[in-house]
Write a structure and sequence with these properties.
The protein has 221 residues and is mostly helical. The protein contains seven helices and three strands.
Length: 221
């Protein structure tokens, strides 16, 4: 197999005379090249690049939906990667006393699934509202606040109810994200009524998350 190299954001494969503009292109063409020359290693590397490109696309979509310009619609790869992350999380369960390496293996797919789910839910609400009116940036910011706070409370209760430690951790991470969102989005936009609404949601979530966690334990017991 020829050696590949990165140059200026591109992937080069000099032995085959190929130049790829992105990990996705590298994965697709590399996989085809491996199949053509009978290189299992190159085919595997191509599949890895495709997976990385799909994960990157999902993360970019989620960031835009939750903190940037609202994307038009999620691509099929975004939906597939999101579903895979959720399934990977459901398949495993963190146990008390696990090593930190095992905890990360449970936390990462849970975090990716929640991140993608929050983005999809936010965009879904915006699309529904857009059927009757054109949502401005202030309303979109409030919808994001409502989505993040609702998910944080749901995770806090569900994590305690089903003994999913990762869900509780992500609930508190969502609170931190919400605090940063207030600072860098809501306050920057400067619309007092919407800022007040987001602050109310944040304050209510700060109070409810630890209480919902306790309610879950009581309900389970």
């Amino acid at each position: 197999m020829g050696r590949g190299a990165f140059a200026g954001g591109r992937v080069l494969h000099p032995a085959a005379g190929l130049e790829f503009d992105s990990p996705g292109d590298c994965g697709a063409d590399g996989h085809r090249l491996g199949d053509r020359i009978g290189s299992i290693t190159l085919e595997f590397h191509g599949m890895v690049f495709i997976a990385v490109a799909s994960l990157g696309e999902m993360l970019n979509y989620a960031v835009q939906a939750l903190a940037g310009e609202m994307p038009f619609r999620p691509s099929l790869s975004v939906l597939v990667v999101s579903a895979c992350a959720v399934l990977c999380y459901i398949a495993g369960k963190e146990r008390v006393g696990e090593a930190w390496q095992q905890q990360i293996l449970h936390l990462v797919p849970a975090l990716l699934g929640v991140f993608a789910g929050a983005a999809l839910l936010t965009q879904g609400i915006v699309r529904v509202i857009a059927l009757g009116m054109t949502p401005d940036v202030f309303l979109v910011a409030l919808i994001r606040s409502l989505t993040v706070c609702s998910i944080a409370m749901g995770l806090a209760w569900g994590g305690s109810r089903w003994e999913r430690l990762e869900m509780t951790r992500i609930a508190y991470a969502a609170l931190a994200f919400m605090g940063a969102k207030l600072l860098f989005e809501d306050l920057r936009l400067g619309h007092m009524q919407f800022i007040a609404a987001s602050l109310f949601l944040f304050a209510m979530t700060l109070i409810c998350v630890p209480r919902l966690a306790r309610v879950g334990r009581i309900y389970r017991g």
